[in-house]
Amino acid sequence: MKFGELPQNARQYINGRWDTGVTTGISHNPSDTREVVAEYARADRSQTELAIRAAAEAQPQWGYSTPQRRADVLDQIGSEILARKAELGLLLAREEGKTLPEAVAEVARAGQIFKFFAGEALRTPGESLASIRPGVHVDVSREPVGVVGIIAPWNFPMAIPAWKIAPALAYGNSVIFKPAELVPACGWALAEIISRAALPAGVFNLVMGSGREVGQTLVDSPRVQAISFTGSVATGERILQTAAARRAKVQLEMGGKNPLVVLADADLEQAVDCALQGAYFSTGQRCTASSRLIIEAGVHDAFVARLRQRMASLKVGHAVDRDTQIGPVVDQSQLDENLAWIATAKAEGAEHVVGGELLKRPTPGHYMSPALFLAKPEHRVAREEVFGPIACVLRADNYEHALALANDTPFGLCAGICTTSLKHAMHFKRHAEVGMTMVNLPTAGVDYHVPFGGRKGSSYGPREQGRYAAEFYTTVKTGYMLA
Ligand code: NAD
Description:
- It is a single chain.
- With 483 residues, the chain is an alpha/beta fold.
- It has helices at residues 45-63, 67-83, 85-96, 100-122, 159-170, 184-195, 211-220, 233-245, 268-280, 297-312, 332-347, 399-407, 422-431, 470-473; strands spanning 12-14, 17-19, 23-29, 32-42, 127-130, 136-144, 147-151, 174-178, 204-206, 226-230, 249-253, 258-262, 290-296, 351-354, 371-374, 390-396, 411-412, 414-418, 436-439, 455-456, 459-460, 474-482.
- The strands form six sheets. A seven-stranded mixed beta sheet has the order 14-15-16-13-12-18-19, sandwiched between helices.
């Protein structure tokens, strides 16, 4: 299939068949809004229910299939994604707006994740223990949870679905995947590859459409035993209330307001690199973005001056242009929100250092310059997630003050520190109230074979990724036998 044909008619995949939707939706290229990337089929509640029924009926067969079969399927999917990373990366860059190298790397990551879980299917953990009673044997085994509803955001439209779908299938669950509305072509491309991987009909289903209708149907259905969600805090909280009330298993990955602490003893250039990368690359549209730069007084002014200088040379432009470092904002409503944040920051007295302007480029797109503010801890721009290329600097008196500021947030996803002090690095790793820490690295940018997730308001439920994914996608059974 040629690339140009890919997105034009993205359909639902339900019970092993491609179906039209009830209505049609469109996705646009945020780098050039004249370009339609996909026309896609939108499902309603009843079509979503068909997918749920198909998944429930198919799950036992898949759940009892051999680990080798599941490994082979996942390996095939991973191999195809990797082989087509350039083509799929171009699609991702066109639909979501991250730069082409970022998009190709994300697709490669999706392929690696499927390959990783191909191996994990063969290593499904279990335990055998001595009983407290004579002659009794005890074992703990893991079984699939059942039907898993996967609700994904737009900002990593290949990698996030991959790190949910791959473990779900590896451990024998069936899946209904709902991509975000802004990125149907990416969701469809992934589903199209999965559809050719010799899964029994109904084990994997793609249902596109609105969160309120398709997503909510998954969350409400008593036949969906688990919901894995990544997205905003507001949606996550709503999902938790409904799904937990009917005792479904729930895993939520939500927002962040990630601190990057820079101590006076840090390598300044390295620290500025970490800040630039963490705050602004991928247009700041990462839940792990470094949106609070907490700088020790001794290096504060030098850091701000150097960061400002480096920001001035960042190239914002069309996602597939070779020179572009920062792509457009994903859509008009996110751009409007970002500009409203710029106005709020100024109105509440944060000192504007640079950026935050609309930019004109040869193609009509959602372009803005990365912005930096000097803020106070109580400013909203320093407390709430922005999800755009906007960061603020907070001044810290010393390490202890910096740590206190870093933890002074309702979020707890990732925290970074730039320092040459082993003592402070070790202390920070231990005392940062987050799920992930970084030393002399940007807060964004993680490995796929280790847990991903946070604490406090950022996450709920077991961690994603690596072998820790088994906690969510399996349920344990304890067996006793008198030998
Ligand atoms: P969103 O919450 O608006 O949507 C996420 C998904 O939920 C979409 O597929 C949407 O259609 C669906 N949805 C919306 N309403 C629903 C409902 N009532 N029931 C079920 N599903 C519903 O978020 P978004 O705008 O797509 O993504 C941006 C947000 O995601 C940011 O806030 C960001 O911090 C967060 N995010 C978090 C992580 C993480 O791992 N912590 C990763 C990426 C993005």
